[in-house]
Amino acid sequence: MIEFKDVSKVYPNGTKGLNNVNIKINKGEFVVIVGLSGAGKSTLLRSINRLHEITSGEIIIDGKSITKARGKALLRCRRDIGMIFQNFNLVKRSTVLRNVLSGRVGYHSTIRTILGLFPKEDITIALNALKRVNLEEKAYSRADELSGGQQQRVSIARALAQEAKIILADEPVASLDPLTTKQVMDDLKRINKETGITTIVNLHFVDLARQYATRIVGVRAGEIVFDGSVEDATDDVFSSIYGRPVKQDEMLGAKV
Amino acid sequence: MDALKKRRLSLMKRLVTLILIIIILWASSAGSEVSISSLIDGLPGMGSLFLEMLPPDWSYFSYVTDPMLETIRMAIIGTTYGAIIAIPFALLSSRNVVKWPVIYYPFRFVMNLIRTIPELLLAALFVPVLGIGDNAGIMALSVFSFGVIAKLAYEAVEAIDNGPLEAMTAVGANKIQWIFYGVVPQVIASFVSYTLYCFEINVRAAAILGYVGAGGIGLYLNNTLKLFQYQRVSTIIIYTLIVVVIIDMISNKCREKLI
């Protein structure tokens, strides 16, 4: 369970990224965060694993405060949270397998990992992770030989190899075409269902949010303005989250 | 009105620049007493020297093979030492690896300072300390290579994609793992390429380090010149040319493959 307690974030230039956010996300949920760009979706997501530091309040994950975690404890917290980025963030010159194995570094000593001496079980874990996103045969290809959608699925495999309890996906499909978007979202959803891994996804496509989410959270100006089931998230709700009627290009369906 | 003023100003700037360049050129040539006429007067002398160098003393080739190999060895060892010391400096000088200016500014300063010293001067400094011979040459080339490689490598590190670094932070990697999985794979090819490039420079530099007593073929070049053995001089020059061209070719091929 992830719990935000009065979380606020003020950027050095004075803009408020998050304003007194309180929310609980339960284990196994598939939460989609929606909002305009700049509304604070990304800040909200990245504050969970402290890629962004918050200014006040506290975030508690499975009973432990990541906000107060220092040094090794923080690394341990992060190890349990997989992250998927808009630009995949793979090392393009490395092999797919090495990229997936990089998710395992938190489990081993520094010396072992820098020499690349992963135990056999880790290789098996990494290959299994690739199998789950249907990319097992690409394990020894260089990452930049893969298409965008495939690269994104490699980054999902990295999160799986991490054996994370939570997956955070920050606009995972924003640089993909509609077809690969569906593959990536299907993979995320399937993994969420099969393993009960808590999944939080930032999206700006309204129809995708409705299709995949079990719960939708609307963010506007750093505040949570909607939190409810897909059925409750009507067009009117989206209009109020966006502060204007939903546009055609915010529907993925319109692009196909 | 305003546009006209600006136009005039830019014209003035160009004129001043031109005048400055002419003054600098004139002052330099007057100061070093260089003149076109003395260059032309020297032409016949150059011609006769060139004739004296022919034909090269072919038997001398085998005699200078050992110093030639020593020159290459000096370049190899010097480049390797320099490259190894360059690694921590390149990382510690990079803003995206070390977030604190108190660390990366001093490292950059040391790096830039060392880079300003020419290799011949370094060799001249090391010869009194380490004695005449290739040790002084190796040290000079190490320090020189360090300056070149560290500078190029640090610029490569600062230009890498931030994405993988962010990803490594997110998986809970510690700083060393973060460097080895986020930074190293992104710069290793450039690093090797810069090291090879530096090796090319070092072979050329090593060939003249003997002039200040720092080992290698330069010593023989100096001696034969002093003894007016011009046919041997040309042998050395041809030999050096061949070796440099071959090494450059191999190194270039390797570097092409890397990118």
What does this structure look like?
Chain B: It is a multi-pass membrane protein. Chain B: It is found in: Cell membrane. The complex is a heterodimer of chains A (256) and B (259). With 256 residues, chain A is α/β, with parallel strands linked by helices. Chain A has a domain at 91-163. Helices cover 34% and strands 23% of the residues of chain A. Chain A is built from nine helices and ten strands. Chain A has helices at residues 41-48, 71-79, 96-101, 110-114, 120-132, 148-161, 178-195, 206-212, 235-242; strands at 2-10, 16-25, 30-34, 56-61, 64-65, 81-84, 166-170, 198-202, 215-220, 223-228. In chain A, the strands form two sheets. A six-stranded mixed beta sheet of chain A has the order 6-7-8-3-9-10, sandwiched between helices. Chain A has a four-stranded antiparallel beta sheet with strand order 2-1-4-5, covered by helices on one side. Chain B has 259 residues and is mainly α. In chain B, 83% of the residues lie in helices and 0% in strands. Chain B has ten helices and no strands. Chain B has helices spanning 2-31, 36-52, 60-92, 101-115, 119-130, 134-158, 162-170, 175-209, 218-226, 230-258. In chain B, helix 6 packs across helix 8 (175-209), helix 7 (162-170) runs antiparallel to helix 8 and helix 8 runs antiparallel to helix 10. The radius of gyration of chain B is 24 Å and the shape is globular. The model of chain B has no long low-confidence stretch (mean pLDDT 88). Chain A binds chain B through residues 49, 51, 74-83, 85, 87-94, 98, 102-103, 105-106, 110, 113-114, 155, 158, 162, and chain B through 161, 163-164, 166-174, 176-177, 180-182, 185-186, 188-189.
